[in-house]
């Protein structure tokens, strides 16, 4: 009996103890983050909007992001495997020869980074934005959706405040392009024209809208693009409103659009700002623009091995093909790489000229590099195997370099000019100050010229030719006497007499992430070019990444994948 | 005066070389004792108790005289001697000591006894620590392995987990690399969690720990830092007992933290009796690599230059970089422990000062640890107060090793690829070759990575006997750890983008705080043959880890090797031209509030039943799942007690166990259930986490069927277990459904992660005689792991996570493992290599396929102790079988392409048909069998005995660790696990530039005062 009594005592004591000592309320207080309710009272739409702007670096800076899918998949760029370098599980080669699959890492990473902009911009709309803030957010979202639709043929979209555990709806086809176009039309009157080049302006929205209108028919039927006359007329009127604003003009120095002082270029419409030597400036993280030259330059392209400090100038990867190089018609003059500072005979967009902000420090003459490279004193440079550092135009047919010349094959493209703005003339190999160019004036002019040629009711080939020749004159290139949209059967402009609009877009906008979209619109993307056989129409859009497909039942895999 | 002669002779026996003066002192003590005993009807019995194994004195053994009018008992003093005034009618002398066989002697007319006790690994009365209590081994129903110091690995071992390596069936301890104090992979019965921690719960003296190291990993310009063991601060000399709880019945009392098993560390306590001092000192050296990495020797390199037609790379010298990066400093360790007191109040205090030099230059681990334990009884022994306190300072200098550097930025990569014909410096200046290898000596010289942590773990417990059978206990425990790390790379170091000419400094600080409060009531009673124990309690636990980091580059000094000052950048971080904004991380506080109960019922020592239940409320769980309930039950049948076995001479004990229960794992990141917004930088904000209000613990149902046996009077003993663990509602990080914040969110799936296997532990006492003994004990465990129903609930498609990052030049973004339905965790997923084409290029399939299992299936350990008189030799072997390692080092660092640039290369590649211009490719070519047998440690000790007047139980010893390994693996050590997780999906069995495993030797001595 006694035992039972004791048991009874336990029965009373235990709950007593628990009541006495227990029952802390189990609500988790967050540490350095805010709950949605805290965010609602503390975080302003302005901060979220800047967060979305900062996302642009993620999608548009890296050489393995949008840049790779838009450029390496074309005749402008490729990355051959160089023995121990740049195989990276074959990701670069399959982009160039159009054999990618839904498991490709870049296909996934681009999808996710664009959707981050999509999401962060949408979130602004939940935080009582001003009309201007809402318009900027909708612009950023439209920009992300434009690239998603262009690359993947569809995009997922959420309403502000949606439960993120539920799969979002997906827009595709005409509805998708109409949505982007209507969003841009809606924000153009609201956006402030005084936003500068680092934020959305009416002009930036107009440029994106022009792209969307030009591409609408290519999105609908990528294998045989169509061009609605109304769209073309709108492209022309949008473009002319920008051209007649007087805000923009051609920069005499083409590469000053991409050097460390490019923020002042009169061609700039939209850019991501960077500050030399600063990991973060004004809350905006540096986007690491140095990657754009390091991806292509050789290890020994500059640096001072003799002085104990040996800097890796580059990673020795990205190259262009000789057919693309030849579309600049280098034979108009003597070999371009020996040009002097006063040379005016050829297309300046090939570079190869002396630049005061580079050549005295490194010997480098930015642009398309072919042939022997020199140091700052004019002495020849060597590769790591002891060969002369003389870039060779030809690449191994399978894009796997295995010869003793494997470090020097491929013409290199230094479009962003290395940042030697340090006081002692050395170089910012991290946190360089070049702004990332997202939209540039010549693209507007070329789009207007294209729309003039494509319009059925207001065809104006002469006007288009005049616009293109205006640009060519600014670049030191001989004028065309006539111009067609694209070469008849081949992607390559006639070396002796290049005179196509697609060729001109390539020469002006090379390595600016437009080429794939352009080639599709001009019906050339499935044709043959160097190191790439002809391919199936399914490659006109990228596959939906396997991971995304597995998490959202509303996404449907693109035909053929 | 017979007893005096007796003392004299026993003293002489015990210590042949006592000085005359010392002898005199002892005689005076003896006389003093004799005068006290000159009363009543007693006779004085004296003697000495020693360990049969090595003749050392046993301190604190209980000597009881019985059979007479009253029982009389005493305990042996530090030198093992005892004096007992027993009633003259006493007939029997019983000597007992924990861990040794009881001895009974007939007193007769003898008054002096020399007793040697035989240690008994199968002492069924030994107390095993269980959650919130303890039980005698014979009363245990669960699968528990209990180890005491004589079972531990010997020699230079810096972490508690290292002591257990290979000692427990089903417990895998794999060091991530060979650095002193490096993190260990510790897994009981396989990996039962995809994403959350798979480490067991660590409990020190009843206080459950957080389990994370206060050392927070951070990214240097050369990659993520390697981790430290969470118990690095423990003085391994203090550990008196380790209890490893494996099945659901023994871990269910820890509820949502129990599903990976529990390891209970119990520190040494004072033995009530005379005050004593134990001292030991050890000196050690690292004697080089346990195993060399298979790269070209100098001569092979020179002929390789010819074979591949490489010119201009023979510099004419002969230099072995892997030797040059080694340091061979003397490691020292001094440990002093004081203990004393009575049954009513006793204490033990110990102090450790040690410095263990790592194999590599500028790498060491210094530990200063003070440990205090006490036990005091008040109020007629109704109130007991226990306290324990560890205060430790751990200071580390870390060699530049990172988990995921590129082609450069790791001292091992620089050493392996160093051109062996080339000098390291010229005219006092380091040579920085332009071939991408880096200079390992310069790299070591230019980097400084100093880490310091202060760790305090303390607890106080009060228990009060409310009734004879009812005890209330309160325990408060706390752990406060503070960590600071200063990382510097001097700007004069050439060849590194972002560092050369600029310099780099980082200051990292972190704090870990956890607290635990428990109240328990324990009721014990018996009705006839029925024994009943009921335990009920409440537990409140909270923990938080915070960290912050400041980094800077661009300094004005130490930019020129010839002109250096001994000042670190981290001392003048304000000088940095480019200071990255300080980063702070403040974790949400985790709180767990629990109620639990356990009932133990037994009948006639034959049938045992245990039932346990715990309810956990955790603020980590989502708001829709506040509380989890974890029940378990176990049954044991002692067949030996049945009539049909009772008289068996062959079977000394036979017990059948079965248990079943549910435990949980909730070690996901705090805050994951809530949506969160962050400030990534000034003027910017975004949503960073997708919350999931349904988030809950992982649930593991485990069945265990086991057998304990002992044959031939305990000469052969062992345990056998079969288990089946089914983990469901696994916590999975699903990619955020785009559009959303970057990354993943946590969710529970309706899947089944199955670990099943068998474990056998066996011990054989081959010889057991006073002068000679030989024991062998071994264990072997087989585990198989597979994940089933791993399906996305929204789309019905199998979930696939690709992980196992392969790092280095030319393989960016390559991954080697997958976690997907119907495969073992981290299954290799690689392109298939099928030889070389005519040009010497690798032929590799276009797409990856399933390529084997990285999880060791069979883990075995074997230990043997041989003693002849005072000389004892011990060997401990370890082995693992049936798993594959990916050699990322061979893929990227020592690949054949390096020879063209004058880098040293892999021997296997050199011997193959590969061309030197072949590309680098990730494929199953670099998958190697990890099978190995290793002599982990060997020790030889000699018990000198007492020396002089004061020194007692002097023992000298030599140890060797990592003496040899038998393996086909080409890397430094097949026991390797570089952390190569991708997007926080854990990886397994990749090797990439690990800190090599050193062979170490040590010698030392220990004695008592």
Q: Would you mind describing this structure in some detail?
A:
By secondary structure, chain A is mainly alpha-helical. Chain A has a domain of 197 residues: Alpha Horseshoe (Serine Threonine Protein Phosphatase 5, Tetratricopeptide repeat). Chain A contains 18 helices and 12 strands. In chain A, the strands form 6 sheets. Chain A has a two-stranded parallel ribbon. Chain A has a two-stranded antiparallel sheet with strand order 2-3. Chain B has 1009 residues and is mainly beta. Chain B has a 22-stranded antiparallel β-barrel. Chain B has a 5-stranded mixed beta sheet with strand order 10-17-18-13-14, with no helix packed on it. Chain B has a 4-stranded antiparallel beta sheet with strand order 3-2-5-6, with no helix packed on it. The two termini of chain B are 28 Å apart. In chain B, helix 1 crosses helix 2.
Task: Please specify the SSE layout and strand pairing.
The complex is a heterodimer of chains A (561) and B (1009).
Chain A: H1 2-21, H2 36-42, H3 45-60, H4 66-72, E1 81-82, H5 91-96, H6 105-124, H7 131-152, E2 154-157, E3 169-172, H8 173-187, H9 202-220, H10 229-243, E4 268-272, E5 280-281, E6 284-285, H11 291-294, H12 322-326, H13 359-362, E7 367-369, E8 371-372, E9 390-391, E10 400-401, E11 412-414, E12 436-440, H14 441-454, H15 461-474, H16 501-509, H17 515-521, H18 546-551
Helix pairs in contact in A: 3-6, 3-7, 6-7, 7-8, 7-9, 8-9, 9-10, 9-14, 10-14, 14-15, 14-16
Chain B: H1 2-14, H2 20-36, E1 42-51, E2 62-66, E3 72-75, E4 81-87, E5 92-96, E6 103-106, E7 112-117, E8 127-130, E9 133-136, E10 144-147, H3 160-164, E11 171-175, E12 184-188, E13 201-204, E14 207-208, E15 219-220, E16 223-224, E17 239-245, H4 248-251, E18 262-267, E19 273-289, H5 298-307, H6 321-324, E20 330-341, E21 345-357, E22 364-378, E23 383-397, H7 411-416, E24 425-426, E25 429-430, H8 440-446, E26 447-465, E27 470-489, E28 504-527, E29 530-553, E30 578-586, E31 590-603, E32 607-618, E33 627-638, H9 643-646, E34 651-665, E35 676-681, E36 684-689, E37 698-711, E38 716-728, E39 731-735, E40 744-748, E41 752-768, E42 772-788, E43 800-806, E44 814-820, E45 827-836, E46 842-852, E47 858-868, E48 871-881, E49 884-887, H10 888-892, H11 907-910, E50 927-929, E51 932-947, E52 951-967, E53 990-991, E54 998-1008
Helix pairs in contact in B: 1-2
């Amino acid at each position: 009996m006694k035992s039972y009594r004791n048991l009874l005592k336990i029965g009373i004591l235990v709950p007593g103890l628990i009541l006495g000592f227990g029952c802390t309320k189990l609500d988790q207080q967050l540490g350095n983050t805010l709950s949605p309710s805290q965010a609602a009272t503390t975080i302003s739409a302005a901060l979220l909007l800047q967060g979305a702007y900062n996302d642009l670096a993620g999608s548009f800076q890296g050489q393995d992001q949008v840049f790779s899918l838009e450029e390496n998949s074309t005749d402008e760029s490729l990355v051959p495997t160089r023995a121990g370098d740049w195989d990276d599980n074959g990701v670069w080669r399959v982009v160039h020869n159009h054999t990618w699959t839904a498991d490709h890492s870049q296909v996934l990473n681009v999808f996710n980074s664009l959707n981050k902009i999509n999401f962060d911009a949408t979130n602004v709309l939940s935080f009582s934005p001003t009309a201007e803030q809402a318009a900027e957010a909708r612009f950023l979202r439209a920009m992300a959706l434009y690239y998603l639709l262009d690359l993947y043929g569809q995009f997922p979209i959420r309403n502000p405040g949606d439960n993120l555990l539920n799969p979002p709806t997906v827009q595709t086809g005409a509805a998708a392009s109409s949505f982007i176009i209507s969003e841009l039309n809606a924000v153009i009157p609201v956006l402030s024209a005084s936003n500068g080049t680092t934020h959305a302006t009416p002009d930036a929205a107009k440029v994106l809208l022009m792209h969307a209108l030009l591409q609408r028919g290519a999105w609908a039927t990528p294998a045989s693009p169509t061009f609605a006359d109304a769209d073309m007329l709108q492209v022309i009127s949008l473009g002319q409103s920008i051209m007649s604003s007087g805000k923009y003009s051609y920069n005499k120095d083409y590469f000053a659009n991409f050097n460390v002082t490019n923020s002042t270029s009169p061609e700039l419409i939209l850019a991501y700002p960077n500050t030399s030597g600063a990991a973060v400036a004004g809350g905006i993280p540096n986007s690491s623009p140095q990657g754009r030259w390091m991806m292509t330059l050789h290890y020994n392209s500059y640096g001072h091995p003799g002085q104990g400090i040996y800097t890796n100038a580059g990673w020795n990867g990205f190259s262009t093909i000789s057919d693309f190089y030849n579309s600049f018609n280098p034979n108009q003059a003597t070999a371009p790489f020996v040009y002097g500072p006063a040379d005016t005979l050829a297309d300046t967009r090939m570079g190869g000229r002396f630049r005061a902000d580079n050549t005295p420090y490194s010997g480098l003459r930015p642009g398309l590099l072919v042939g022997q490279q020199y140091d700052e004193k004019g002495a020849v440079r060597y590769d790591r195997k002891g060969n002369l550092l003389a870039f060779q135009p030809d690449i191994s047919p399978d894009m796997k370099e295995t010869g003793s010349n494997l470090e020097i094959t491929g013409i290199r493209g230094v479009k962003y000019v290395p940042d030697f703005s340090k006081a002692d003339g050395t170089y910012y190999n991290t946190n360089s100050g070049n702004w990332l160019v997202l939209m540039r004036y010549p693209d507007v002019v070329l789009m207007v010229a294209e729309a003039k040629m494509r319009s059925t009711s207001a065809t104006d080939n002469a006007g288009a030719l005049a616009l293109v020749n205006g640009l060519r004159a600014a670049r030191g290139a001989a004028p065309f006497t006539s111009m067609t949209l694209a070469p008849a059967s081949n992607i390559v402009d006639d070396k002796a007499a290049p005179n196509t609009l697609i060729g001109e877009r390539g020469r002006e906008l090379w390595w600016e992430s437009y080429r794939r979209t352009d080639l599709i619109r001009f019906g050339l993307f499935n044709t043959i070019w160097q190191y790439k056989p002809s391919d199936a129409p399914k490659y006109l859009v990228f596959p939906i990444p396997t991971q995304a497909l597995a998490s959202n039942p509303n996404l449907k895999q693109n035909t053929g994948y | 005066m017979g007893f005096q002669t007796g003392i004299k002779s026993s003293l002489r026996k015990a210590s042949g070389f006592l000085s005359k003066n010392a002898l005199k002192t002892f005689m005076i003590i003896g006389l003093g004792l004799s005068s006290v005993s000159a009363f009543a009807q007693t006779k004085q019995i004296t003697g000495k108790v020693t360990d049969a194994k090595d003749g050392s004195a046993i301190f604190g053994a209980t000597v009881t005289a019985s059979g007479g009018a009253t029982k009389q008992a005493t305990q042996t003093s530090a030198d093992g001697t005892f004096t007992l005034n027993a009633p003259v009618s006493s007939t029997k002398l019983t000597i007992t000591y924990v861990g040794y066989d009881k001895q009974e002697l007939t007193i007769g007319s003898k008054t002096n006894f020399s007793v040697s006790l035989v240690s008994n690994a199968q002492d069924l009365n030994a107390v095993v620590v269980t959650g919130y209590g303890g039980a005698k081994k014979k009363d245990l129903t669960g699968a528990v392995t209990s180890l005491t110091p004589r079972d531990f690995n010997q020699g230079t071992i810096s972490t508690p987990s290292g002591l257990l390596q290979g000692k427990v069936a089903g417990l895998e301890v794999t060091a991530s690399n060979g650095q002193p104090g490096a993190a260990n992979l510790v897994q009981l019965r396989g990996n039962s969690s995809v994403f959350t921690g798979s480490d067991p719960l660590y409990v020190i003296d009843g206080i459950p720990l957080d389990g994370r190291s206060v050392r927070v990993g951070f990214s240097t310009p050369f990659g993520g830092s390697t981790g430290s063991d969470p118990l690095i601060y423990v003085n391994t000399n203090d550990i008196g007992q380790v209890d490893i709880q494996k099945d659901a019945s023994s871990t269910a009392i820890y509820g949502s933290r129990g599903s990976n098993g529990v390891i209970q560390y119990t520190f040494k306590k004072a033995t009530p009796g005379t005050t004593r001092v134990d001292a030991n000192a050890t000196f050690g050296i690292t004697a080089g690599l346990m195993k060399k990495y298979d790269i070209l020797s100098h001569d092979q390199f020179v002929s390789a230059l010819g074979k591949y037609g490489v010119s201009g790379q023979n510099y004419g010298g002969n230099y072995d970089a892997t030797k040059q990066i080694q340091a061979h400093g003397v490691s020292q360790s001094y440990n002093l422990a004081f203990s004393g007191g009575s049954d009513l109040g006793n204490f033990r205090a110990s102090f450790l000062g040690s410095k263990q030099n790592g194999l590599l230059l500028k790498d060491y681990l210094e530990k200063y640890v003070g440990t205090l334990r006490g036990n005091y009884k008040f109020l007629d022994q109704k109130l007991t107060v226990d306290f324990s306190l560890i205060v430790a300072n751990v200071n580390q200098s870390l060699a530049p090793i990172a988990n995921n550097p590129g082609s450069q930025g790791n001292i091992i990569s620089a050493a392996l690829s160093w051109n062996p014909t080339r000098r390291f410096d010229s005219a006092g200046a380091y040579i920085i070759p332009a071939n991408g290898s880096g200079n390992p000596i310069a790299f070591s010289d230019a980097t400084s990575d100093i880490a310091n942590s202060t760790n305090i773990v303390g607890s106080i417990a009060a228990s009060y006997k409310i009734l004879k059978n009812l005890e209330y206990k309160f325990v408060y425990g706390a752990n406060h750890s503070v960590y600071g790390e200063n990382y510097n790379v001097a700007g004069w170091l050439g060849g590194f983008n972002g560092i050369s000419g600029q310099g780099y400094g980082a200051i990292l600080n972190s704090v870990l705080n956890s607290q635990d409060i428990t109240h328990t009531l324990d009721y014990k009673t018996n009705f006839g043959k029925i024994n009943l124990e009921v335990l009920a309690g409440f537990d409140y636990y909270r923990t938080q880890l915070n960290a912050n980091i400041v980094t800077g580059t661009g300094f004005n000094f130490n930019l020129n090797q010839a002109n250096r000052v001994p000042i670190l950048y981290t001392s003048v971080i304000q000088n940095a031209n480019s200071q990255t904004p300080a980063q702070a991380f403040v974790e949400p506080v985790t709180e767990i509030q629990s109620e639990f109960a356990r009932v133990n019922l037994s009948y006639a020592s034959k049938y045992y039943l245990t039932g346990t239940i715990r309810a956990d409320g955790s603020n980590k769980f989502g708001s829709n799942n506040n509380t989890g309930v974890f029940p378990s039950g176990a049954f044991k049948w002692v067949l030996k007690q049945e009539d049909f076995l009772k008289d068996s001479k062959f079977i000394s004990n036979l017990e059948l166990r079965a248990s079943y229960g549910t435990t949980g794992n909730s070690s996901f990141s705090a805050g994951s259930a809530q949506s969160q917004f962050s400030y990534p930088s000034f003027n910017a904000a975004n949503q960073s986490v997708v919350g999931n209000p349904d988030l809950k613990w992982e649930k593991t149902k485990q069945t265990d069927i086991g057998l304990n046996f002992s044959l031939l009077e305990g000469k052969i003993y062992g345990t056998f277990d079969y288990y089946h663990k089914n983990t469901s509602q696994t916590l999975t990080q699903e990619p955020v459904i785009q559009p959303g914040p970057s990354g993943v969110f946590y969710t529970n799936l309706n899947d089944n992660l199955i670990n099943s296997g068998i474990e056998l532990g066996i011990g054989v006492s081959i010889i057991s005689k006073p002068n000679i003994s030989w024991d062998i004990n071994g264990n072997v465990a087989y585990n198989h792991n597979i994940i089933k129903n791993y399906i996305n609930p929204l789309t019905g498609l199998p979930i696939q996570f690709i992980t196992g990052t392969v790092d280095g030049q030319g393989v960016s973004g390559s991954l080697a493992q997958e976690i997907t339905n119907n495969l073992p965790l981290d299954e290799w997923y690689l392109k298939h290599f099928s030889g070389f084409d005519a040009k010497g290029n690798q032929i590799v399939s276009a797409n990856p396929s399933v390529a084997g299992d990285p999880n060791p299936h069979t883990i075995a350990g074997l230990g043997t102790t041989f003693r002849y008189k005072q000389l004892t030799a011990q060997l401990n072997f370890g082995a693992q079988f049936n798993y594959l390692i990916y050699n990322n080092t061979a893929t990227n660092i020592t690949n054949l392409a390096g020879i063209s640039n004058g880098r040293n290369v892999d021997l296997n590649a050199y011997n193959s048909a590969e061309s030197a211009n072949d590309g680098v490719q990730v494929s199953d070519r670099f998958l190697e069998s990890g099978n190995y047998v290793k002599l982990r440690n060997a020790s030889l000790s000699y018990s000198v005995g007492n020396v002089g007047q004061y020194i007692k139980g002097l023992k000298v010893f030599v140890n060797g660790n990592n003496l040899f390994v038998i393996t086909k693996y080409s890397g430094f050590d097949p026991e390797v696990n570089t952390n190569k997780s991708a997007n926080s999906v854990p990886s397994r069995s990749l090797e990439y530039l690990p800190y090599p495993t050193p062979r170490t030797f040590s010698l030392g001595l220990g004695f008592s005062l």
